[in-house]
Design brief:
Blueprint (H helix, E strand, L loop, with lengths): L5 E9 L5 H13 L7 E9 L15 E4 L5 H11 L4 E4 L4 E3 L3 H8 L5 E4 L1 E4 L5 E5 L8 E3 H7 L10 H12 L3 E5 L7 H7 L1 H9 L4 E5 L7 E4 L5 H7 L1 H18 L5
Parallel strand pairs: 1-2, 1-4, 2-3, 6-10, 7-12, 10-11
Antiparallel strand pairs: 4-9, 5-12, 7-8
Helix pairs in contact: 6-7, 8-9
Length: about 260
């Protein structure tokens, strides 16, 4: 079956905050601007913590709100995936957004792979570029729904590193994974080691079926907003969160023999 007849579900976990509506509007607008809409039907599912009310959004954004059975990112993501009726599954954090060709390039790769991830362009709240982040955050994940079912749901016992835990199971599954990088990025391990060591982490810590592939753009397919309320910022400033993060990393190394990427 060609991709012209495919359906795609995008899961957006979102928690109540003063910026929730503006974050969501921007994230969903970036989905609706995808060039892949010409040949792929896209459904957007915004997943809320149990008991939270849906924020007011412009009607033209056309989203479906889902309430998770409990609080936490894993519960929200799992609730959305359980409701997805599609051939492909993608995730997008509510404070991130996609380049208009993000899905088009990733869908092409999925003709010969089982999972794609992506680098991100990090910007601050003034839209100033901070850096390129090579970690495979879920905002850059796209997969056939069959890959999701094979690997399984997110483990809700992880607060901060549920994505790493899921990537550990992905690496053990034997599924073929491609990490998409911008056109000028190194894709051979010896060159990545010299200038982009986090790309080497993807190759060495992701599992035996990981490869790097360039797309034609000079910037990453995902733009990630850096702000004071993000998870990583919380880990850095809150000793309790930092302690939980450290314990989860140690747990993952015990489970997989490495910190999965």
């Amino acid at each position: 079956m060609s991709i012209t007849s495919k359906r795609l579900a995008v899961i957006i976990p979102s928690r109540s905050s003063p910026s929730q509506a503006s974050f969501l509007s921007r994230a969903i607008s970036s989905i609706r601007a995808q060039t892949a809409q010409r040949y792929c039907a896209i459904e957007v599912l915004v997943c809320l913590d149990k008991g939270e009310s849906a924020p007011a959004l412009p009607q033209q954004l056309d989203v479906r709100f889902i309430e998770a059975a409990s609080s936490g990112q894993a519960a929200a993501l799992n609730a959305g995936a359980a409701q997805a009726s599609a051939d492909y599954l993608a995730f997008l954090e509510d404070d991130d957004r996609w380049h208009p060709q993000r899905l088009a390039y990733a869908l092409q790769v999925l003709e010969h792979a089982d999972f794609t991830s992506s680098t991100q362009l990090e910007v601050d709240e003034n839209e100033t570029i901070v850096r390129i982040n090579d970690f495979p955050t879920p905002s850059g994940w796209l997969m056939p729904l069959s890959s999701w079912h094979r690997v399984g749901q997110f483990d809700a016992s992880f607060r901060w590193h549920l994505d790493n835990e899921w990537l550990g199971r992905l690496g053990a599954s034997g599924l073929r994974r491609v990490h998409l990088v911008e056109a000028t990025a190194p894709v051979q391990p010896q060159f990545a080691a010299q200038v982009r060591p986090w790309l080497l982490n993807c190759l060495q810590l992701g599992g035996p079926q990981v490869s790097l592939a360039r797309h034609p753009l000079l910037v990453p397919l995902v733009t990630r907003l850096i702000h004071g309320n993000s998870g990583m910022a919380t880990i850095e400033r809150d000793p309790r969160a930092g302690s939980v993060s450290k314990a989860e990393i140690e747990r993952l190394i015990g489970m997989y023999g490495r910190f999965p990427w």
